[in-house]
Amino acid sequence: MAWRTPRNAARCRPVHTCVKKIGFLSFGHWSDTPYSQVRTASDALLQSVELAVAAEEIGADGAYFRVHHFARQLASPFPLLAAAAARTSRIELGTAVIDMRYENPLYMAEDAGAADLISGGRLQLGISRGSPEQVIDGYRYFGYAPAEGQSDADMAREHARVFLEVLTGEGFAQPNPRPMFPNPPGLLRIEPHSPGLRDRIWWGAGTRATAEWAAEQGMNLMSSTLLTEDTGVPFHQLQAEQIQRFRDAWAAAGHEREPRVSVSRSIFPIVSDLDRQLFWHERASTDQVGYLDGGNARFGRTYAGEPDKLIAELAEDEAIAAADTLLLTVPNQLGVEYNAHVIESVLKYVAPELGWR
User: Fold this and answer.
1) pTM of the prediction?
2) How far, rounded to the nearest angstrom, does the alpha carbon of residue 242 sit from its chain's CA centroid?
3) What are the residue boundaries of the Luciferase-like domain, all occurrences included (predicted)?
4) DSSP type of residue 188
């Protein structure tokens, strides 16, 4: 049973931007269970590369991957990004997000520079303080602990500061007067250096205040389907306020370039019997309010339904309208073929009717 595009198309309201980059976001789960087509870590990694290839072929703009430690999910991102870069030529490749509590910022800058050069400058790296963990203070097992009087969030921001600083390519390390190989003059920088990568770093902000901080640091804004605060308004309105505060803070900081803003959404057009079987129960999804990390949090809804229903509902989503990039969260354990179908359905039946394409 195929769906045909409706004649009366809803149009995107001009909140900030309409035409968008549209990519996917995968958490890279694997589980050795009967329903999963991703049984092992090898399956998760190889299928992630294949989905990036498939997404590029059907016209998507980005392949983004979540990073979780101590979990049966994608973790170390740079081998994966480099592998996907070697198999693709156009699509953006990114993370959403790398938990900076776990990172050595200089070693990370080397890995990021190498992967970006392999990609030809297509990396879009989302970084952040991170999310609730699988283990208690997992970053301590990686050799990192907050300094006296600091929180783990403070430590993450300090790691981010150093990372951003070394990505500029300025020399800072005193050269050995008797080096094994000849050095260029002056202080030495992290190599390999990839010009322009500094402008392609995003901060995953869970609140309005952290979005403002990200703008002050000159990072793009990445906002997901979760905000770790709740003011009682619908999720998309709270997120739209977050985006506006980010843009206001960016303008006040006087940065020269135009920032980018992404939001994540779970969107499932029902255009086949299999879609209906898998997602019919999500058609009445609503926002959820929960308790996370010691405070209230608001979780965004899932959008599922026939394309005309989705078009009408998504036209009212103020945060999507305000963003220039939309990341579609995909159920990766359903396999590459089905996830490519979901992405293509959004691109074919929904995006053009909203002016996103």
Assistant:
1) 0.93
2) 16
3) 25-275
4) B
